[in-house]
Design goal:
The protein is an alpha/beta fold. Helix 2 packs parallel to helix 5. The protein is globular.
Length: about 240
Amino acid sequence: MSKTPTPHIGAQYGEIAETVIMAGDPLRAKFMAEKFLENPVLFNQVRNMFGFTGMHDGKRVSVMGHGMGLPSIGIYSYELFNFYGVKQIIRVGSAGSINPDLHVGDLVIAQGACTDSSYANQYEMPGQYAPIADFGLLRRAADACDRFGYRYMVGNVFSSDVFYNVNPHHDKWISMGVLAVEMEAAALYMNAAYSGGRALTICTISDHILTGEVTTAEERQNTFTKMMDVAFTLV
């Protein structure tokens, strides 16, 4: 815990809460701070990856951006778990549906995260590692969705290393019951497992890869609040 500030987070130890809610877009993190936190204090703006700590319903919580892709969230979540004493990270983000019953605006709670990334190679496992969410967080998130009346599905997502994939092979993932495509959950779950922390990914469906349903960047930044409602019940 003596290596703070880190190369990527400008906070001192103690300035970040034990629970961090993360979003890829740092402006989404700023939006969450303004909407959900009382008296938020900026603890990071290195590379404009904003992070804030404040109070929510009497509990101390931080929000922070993590950027795009497994390498980016891999850096930030590793530093939070290993250098700042963070106990749990809940990622809120967007995903593309590859399930006919999961539509734009619905939530997907990532029970597990398949991936085409080589991120797990660093652990030198004698087989293929299966990154999964913390069950306690997952169960509470599903219960919160039920209370709020939000449409959601729980299951596997695919954490892709490539956004503009010329050979996506969605049919292969669909045949194995994968619900949606995103770009970060697998690295987050691996870092949590390795660091002894807890993690969960909750995504809003921003587009439907099979039907062509889409949303705008502004909608993704400012209107995907149901997943945030759920995430803040887990603090």
